[in-house]
Design brief:
The complex is a heterodimer of chains A (356) and B (736).
Chain A lengths: L11 E10 L2 E11 L4 E5 L6 H9 L6 E6 L2 E2 L10 E4 L11 H11 L4 H14 L15 H13 L5 E5 L7 H18 L3 E5 L2 H7 L2 E6 L2 E6 L1 H6 L4 H6 L4 E11 L2 E6 L2 E6 L6 E7 L4 E4 L5 E10 L4 E7 L2 E7 L11 E6 L3 E4 L4
Parallel strand pairs in A: 3-8, 3-9, 6-7, 7-8
Antiparallel strand pairs in A: 1-2, 1-4, 4-5, 9-10, 11-12, 11-14, 12-13, 14-20, 15-19, 16-17, 16-19, 17-18
Helix pairs in contact in A: 2-3, 2-4, 3-4
Chain B lengths: L3 H15 L29 H6 L7 H9 L11 H24 E2 L2 E2 L2 H7 L10 H20 L7 H29 L9 H8 L2 H4 L2 H4 L6 H29 L5 H13 L4 H10 L4 H10 L10 H26 L2 H9 L4 H30 L2 H6 L6 H10 L5 H26 L21 H28 L2 E3 L3 E4 L2 H7 L2 E3 L2 E3 L5 H31 L5 H10 L5 H11 L11 H24 L4 H9 L4 H12 L1 H17 L4 H4 L7 H10 L3 H27 L21
Antiparallel strand pairs in B: 1-2, 3-4, 5-6
Helix pairs in contact in B: 1-6, 3-4, 4-6, 6-7, 7-20, 7-23, 7-24, 7-25, 11-15, 11-17, 11-21, 12-15, 13-21, 15-17, 16-17, 17-20, 19-20, 20-25, 21-32, 22-32, 23-26, 23-29, 26-29, 27-28, 29-32, 31-32
Classes of the chains: A alpha+beta (356), B mainly alpha (736).
Chain lengths: 356, 736
């Protein structure tokens, strides 16, 4: 992983940026800041504005309102050509009529660099993505994973201030995805690149990010470190979107300092208060945090559905507070459908502030 | 680096200012005798700089000042508002000024009486030439750089320049001439505006009369054209559908042969079919002769008139309907039909309730195309019309014949334009949104349901005789040139070929004594010059339409596609009216032929380009942009190489169409620049069928070779997974 390549990592700053396509507002008054050398993920369901946001950083879309600063410089009016940003496209967008080496050295050649030097530097990039010896292949002669590496190398070698990824793994099969995302993260950290990464896959986002910006309906729903989002979702949408969650009505009985006592049905548990006053509230209960035991104390429940997934079991349990989705690791002791159980809750339960 | 285009266009302007003569050279664009004939001091040949030094043509001097003023932008930053303002004022102002002086000072001095009274008489001037062209080009692109600097289309110099260029040339070479027709229509023959003269001509019985319903006299030409066009539209659509059904829904063994049908209209000059019909069915035709011999039926001239023209146009345009409909018929997903069958519909019910309704927009489209083609066709009515007058031929006779009535020609052109534009408008507005293509490309398995038996018979019964007739016609064309005198002396001879294409060895090398050589080489040259220009302009427009977002895009698209709906005769008349006088004095030159081909055939390039460009992943352009290439470099390095097949297709197609065009050409040819088609038509008028047929078959062979070569080149190209399926489909487009 030693290489001469190094980022000139820059910060990215959005100030109240809006983008409208005619009547449709794709991004609505969004502000955020990305620190230099960080990998930040834009996460959200399709149509939430995450790709538009990415394309505005690239300069492929021009803002309707607001300012964009990269490395402290106002680039709002600069087109893509004049920004020091490169991008890895979802479809890789490798030029099909150019060989691997021509693709990777393209950025150098169009900026007037001599061919020999361009090739040397392109080779460094290819080494970095461990794709040596494929120089004269055409993209159509490479596998999907190899094409993806070429696309990454092509973007990397220009040592951009910001590197952008638009759903880079969506065209790879499931096994490869994990390996490639680890490689991307490795390279990003080794070269200290400011990287913005778009995905709709929350697991992928949790795995690679320094920070995640969750978007919804053209606005930011929540931003923070992966652990923050998972354990302290600031609204129902985020709780539901990041990981699986059972959203259940509950009531805060009393608050003492940082701790709230919450009753879920007949069960009372203590949770971090997060500044929520006593009264009705929603709690997000992670499926792995629902404990099933033989009938006794706790919430009475009945197994409605059961599925065996090899390393764990999944149940749907009917309880007085609603149906709960449960992940149970005791594979050796399956519970038949229709049997009665007692339900208790572990620690991975969070109070969720209501949306309004 | 960002400043390079600025300096470039300033230098181009400067070159036009200092080196090239301002005025058009009368002996033609490619004639360089002027270099040795008093250049640069003779005022006819002088560059603007020398005109200035000699104190001549003072009204032109400000042009140079505008150019000079633009240098104020040179040292400035692009973001500096003064940069944009300077270029907008200097470039735009200069361009506007050149146009203004061109239109106000013409061949007789002041163009408008008011100005004459105001400023006194003024000396005349001729059309603009090389120098003016370059200076105007320079000023124009300085202006567009100003626009870009103001932030138009994300400040992209190349894109703004391209859009403006196309807008400007379409305005000058399509809208301006059509506008001229309007002007001529409301002028009487002394060029005085007169509404009564206009209404008199517009509503004359010769155009709109309905006598044929009540008496034996003929109807007005507008009705003739309309009825003919409807008949041809309906007929060619039905026949085209029959062929399309055979090609996709039957086990017909010679389907590949049907594909030949798609090439025929491309390589056949439109009047050749009419010519062959005369040889078959005319008074001394083969079939006529046979009928007389066998049944004693007396030969008549029935073929001259509606029946003949209808037959010829049906033969000529059915392949186009087939081309349109085969796509439509294939576009009906087999799974739709299979679904209908699993719902217990039988073959006939499936066809009438599912397949046919899904084809409806395609059928309407084919009808409108046939309608427009028939309206615009000039060659067949010319050859076979007899006393059956249609608009396109009437226009020609109004301007070329003894009448020489420009006003009448203009009015007729307006009527014709009205019909075709209405059809074009219908096609776009009414059909544009209705696409029933149900094949999605997502593994649409299944087989098309076989036709119900009744329909099967009907379809074959209609199509097979027709195919046979087409074959006979083309056999006639190939064979006819070897017969001495058709109908009288059927002995074989090479005389016609020798008359047309004779070459002998004289004292000074080869002597090209054949009568056709002149027009043949002119045709090849003009077609070869216009082909790359047509393809280039068309594909540029396609790139802008597919890949760029800008305001007024729909109007832009309409403008580039409009010439599709303007019949050749109308273009011809309008060019004669508009480009006969300064500032654009082009009639009689080769340039006007080239220009007319560019703008007649541009829609082909636009369509071909749009089709293949929408198959290219837009992320390719974007990748190139984010890697630091500007849009010009992106076009150069990414788009052009990937579009090579489309570029070639557009070039070959416009080359071939330039060779077969008649209608516009016939107004624009001159003694020096005669074209093959107009030469042949002249021979036909002299009943010189032998040489006409011989020449036509040579043309067809040349074009076959061109198309064949092209397919050979394209056949070998295959780039990557993404662009595999870019086999160029010949686009169905207007006949000449």
């Amino acid at each position: 992983m030693s290489s001469d390549l190094g980022g000139q990592a820059a910060t990215v700053r959005f100030e109240n940026v809006t983008k409208a396509f005619g009547e449709v507002v794709a991004v609505d008054g969004v502000s955020f800041e990305i620190e230099a050398g960080n990998l930040v993920t834009l996460l959200g369901p399709s149509g939430c504005g995450k790709t538009t946001t990415l394309r505005m950083i690239a300069g492929l879309e021009m803002v309707t309102g607001g300012r964009i600063l990269i490395g402290g410089r106002d680039v709002t009016l600069l087109p893509a050509t004049d920004r020091d940003v490169s991008m890895v496209f979802q479809s890789y967008a490798l030029f099909p009529h150019m060989t691997v080496i021509e693709n990777v050295s393209y950025g150098f050649v169009v900026s007037g660099m001599r061919k020999e030097e361009a090739r040397t530097r392109a080779r460094q990039g290819l080494e970095l993505v461990r794709l040596v010896g494929y120089d004269d292949r055409l993209p159509s002669e490479l596998s999907g994973g190899q094409q993806q590496r070429v696309a990454v190398a092509r973007a990397l070698v220009l040592e951009p201030e910001v590197l952008l990824f638009d759903e880079p793994l969506s065209n790879l099969d499931a096994k490869l995805r994990r390996r490639v995302r680890e490689e991307i993260r490795e390279i990003q950290q080794a070269l200290n690149l400011t990287t913005v990464y778009v995905t709709h896959d929350q697991e992928e986002a949790l795995a690679v990010s320094d920070k995640i910006i969750v978007m919804r309906n053209a606005a930011i729903a929540q931003e923070g470190a992966p652990r923050d989002l998972y354990e302290r979702p600031s609204n129902v949408f985020v709780a539901d979107f990041i990981g699986d969650a059972n959203l259940v009505d509950a009531e805060v009985r009393r608050v003492a300092g940082e701790t709230a006592t919450v009753s879920i049905g007949t069960v009372e548990i203590e949770l971090p208060a997060r500044g929520i006053a006593p009264g009705p509230v929603k709690v997000a209960i992670r499926p792995e945090s629902v404990r099933l035991s033989d009938p006794g104390d706790g919430l009475a429940g009945q197994i409605l559905k059961a599925a065996y997934l090899g390393d764990h079991l999944e149940y749907t349990v009917d309880t007085p507070v609603g149906e709960l989705f449960v992940i149970d690791n005791s594979v050796g002791a399956p519970r038949p459908v229709g049997s009665s159980v007692s339900v208790a809750f572990g620690t991975r339960v969070a109070l969720v502030p209501s949306d309004d | 680096m960002t400043r390079r285009p600025l300096l470039l266009w300033q230098l181009i302007g400067l070159f036009g200012l200092v080196v090239l003569p301002w005025y058009a050279i009368e002996d033609g664009f490619w004639n360089f005798e002027w270099l040795f004939d008093g250049y640069p001091f003779d005022s006819d040949y002088a560059p603007l700089l020398f005109l200035f030094l000699e104190g001549e043509a003072p009204w032109l001097w400000p042009t140079a000042a505008f150019l000079a003023a633009s240098t104020y932008a040179l040292g400035r930053d692009k973001i500096d508002p003064a940069y944009a303002t300077t270029l907008l004022l200097a470039g735009g102002g200069g361009f506007a000024y050149v146009m203004l002086q061109g239109f106000t000072i013409g061949i007789d001095g002041w163009e408008y009486q008011v100005l004459n009274d105001l400023f006194g008489p003024r000396e005349r001037q001729y059309g603009m030439g090389y120098g003016a062209l370059l200076i105007m080009g320079g000023l124009f692109f300085l202006f567009t750089q100003g626009l870009a600097a103001r932030g138009a289309v994300n400040g992209d110099v190349f894109v703004v320049g391209s859009i403006s260029l196309i807008v400007a040339v379409v305005a000058i070479f399509i809208f301006f001439p059509v506008f001229h027709i309007l002007i001529s229509a409301i002028q009487d023959n002394d060029r005085v505006y007169s509404l009564t003269a206009f209404t008199g001509k517009m509503f004359s019985a010769k155009i709109w009369g309905l006598h044929c319903l009540t008496s034996t006299r003929g109807c007005g030409v507008a009705w003739n054209s309309f009825v003919l066009a409807v008949a041809v539209g309906v007929g060619s659509t039905l026949l085209g559908l029959a062929f399309a059904l055979i090609a996709t829904r039957t086990g017909f063994r010679y389907k590949r042969g049907l594909r030949v049908l798609t090439v025929l209209p491309i390589i056949t000059p439109p009047f050749v079919i009419g010519l062959a019909l005369i040889l078959l069915l005319g008074q001394s035709g083969v079939i006529t002769g046979f009928l007389e011999w066998a049944f004693g039926i007396h030969p008549t001239r029935w073929i001259y008139g509606f029946p003949g023209v209808w037959l010829a146009q049906m033969l000529a345009f059915t392949p186009i309907a087939f081309l349109v409909l085969i796509g439509v018929v294939q576009g009906v997903s087999p799974s739709m039909e299979e679904a209908a069958q699993t719902l217990r519909a039988n073959a006939w019910t499936t066809f009438t309730t599912v397949s046919l309704p899904l084809m409806r927009p395609g059928l309407a489209n084919a009808f409108l195309l046939g309608f427009i083609e028939s309206m615009a066709d000039f060659g067949n009515p010319m050859v076979l019309g007899g006393n059956f007058d249609v608009l396109s031929t009437e226009i020609f006779f109004a301007i070329v014949g003894a009448q020489n009535d420009q006003g009448r020609a203009a009015v007729l052109a307006l009527v014709l334009l009205g019909f075709t534009l209405a059809a074009f408008w219908l096609q776009r507005v009414w059909l544009g949104r209705k696409s029933y293509v149900t094949v999605t490309g997502k593994g649409d398995a299944g087989v098309h349901v076989a036709l119900p038996r009744r329909l099967n018979w009907l379809v074959f019964g209609a199509a097979l005789p027709w195919a046979a007739m087409t074959m006979v016609i083309y056999a006639m064309i190939m064979f006819g040139g070897f017969v001495k005198i058709w109908g009288r002396d059927h002995s074989l001879t090479l005389k016609h070929y020798i008359d047309a294409f004779g070459v002998s060895v004289g004292d000074h090398g080869l002597v090209w004594f054949g009568g056709a050589w002149n027009s043949f080489w002119t045709t090849i040259t003009i077609a070869a010059v216009s082909a790359p220009l047509t393809a280039g302009l068309g594909l540029l427009a396609a790139y802008l339409l597919v890949r760029q977002r800008f305001t007024g895009k729909h109007v832009f698209e309409f403008g580039t596609m409009l010439s599709f709906a303007i019949p050749g005769t109308v273009i011809g008349v309008s060019y004669v009216l508009a480009f006969n006088v300064p500032p654009f004095e082009l009639t009689g030159t080769g340039a006007i032929l080239v220009i007319s081909f560019i703008f007649r055939n541009m829609p082909v390039g636009v369509r071909a380009g749009m089709a293949s460009m929408s198959q290219l992943d837009p992320a390719l352009d974007e990748a190139s942009l984010t890697l630091g290439a500007n849009s010009w470099k992106t076009v150069q390095r990414v788009i052009m190489p990937l579009l090579r097949p489309a570029i070639l297709a557009a070039m070959v197609y416009s080359f071939v169409r330039a060779m077969t065009a008649v209608s516009a050409v016939i107004f624009l040819v001159s003694a020096e620049y005669d074209m093959a088609t107009s030469y042949i038509l002249g021979r036909v008028e002299n009943n010189d069928y032998g040489i006409s047929i011989a020449y036509s078959s040579v043309l067809i062979l040349v074009m076959l070779v061109a198309v064949g070569l092209f397919q050979l080149i394209i056949g070998e190209r295959r780039i990557g997974r993404r662009t595999r399926d870019s086999e160029p489909a010949p686009t169905a487009i207007l006949g000449a």
